[in-house]
Amino acid sequence: MMSEDVNALQERGIKLYGQRDYEAAIKIFRQAQELYDQANQSDMVAEMKTNIGLSYRGLGQYQLALDEMQSALHTFQESKDTRRSAAVLGNMGGVYLEMGDKEQAYVCYRQAADAFLEIGEKKMYGETLLAIARMQFKDGKVWTSATTYEVGLENIEKLSMGQKLLKRLFSVKNRLSGTGTN
Fold it and tell me: Which residues, 6 or more positions from 105, have their beta carbon under 8 angstroms from its beta carbon?
């Protein structure tokens, strides 16, 4: 019975988050967190903390977002859950970026990318590299950004139309310059 109730709460929280009703989402995720805590499911408590952190990020309450995510990260690292640790690090990178702390954002994104690569999560590795590439581009590091973006795209199977075009452009550049794999 509990699992159905908590799953329904979680789904409702996700729906509210998707509708950008972050305050309501936080309340629902907290209720789910309490149920998971009562059931001694620390990994799901941490998942709810991550969702709460994302909701705080949506509200622009960055320090609260980081506090929730840091707590979740600690739980995932203690349980050696590399995939979820990396996902939280990526989310934290986004919070730091929105706060204007580029150095800390880069550290989080880099740690996330390394962890995703280590466990063979190619798509998440690629997505994280794209986030790093966007940061590099905004910092005026155009060539570094292009290289990072190219590696990111190579790791993502289902590309958007824009990403497919960029990948083709990189291929042409590599053929003309005699570099790369094509």
Answer: 93, 94, 96, 97, 135
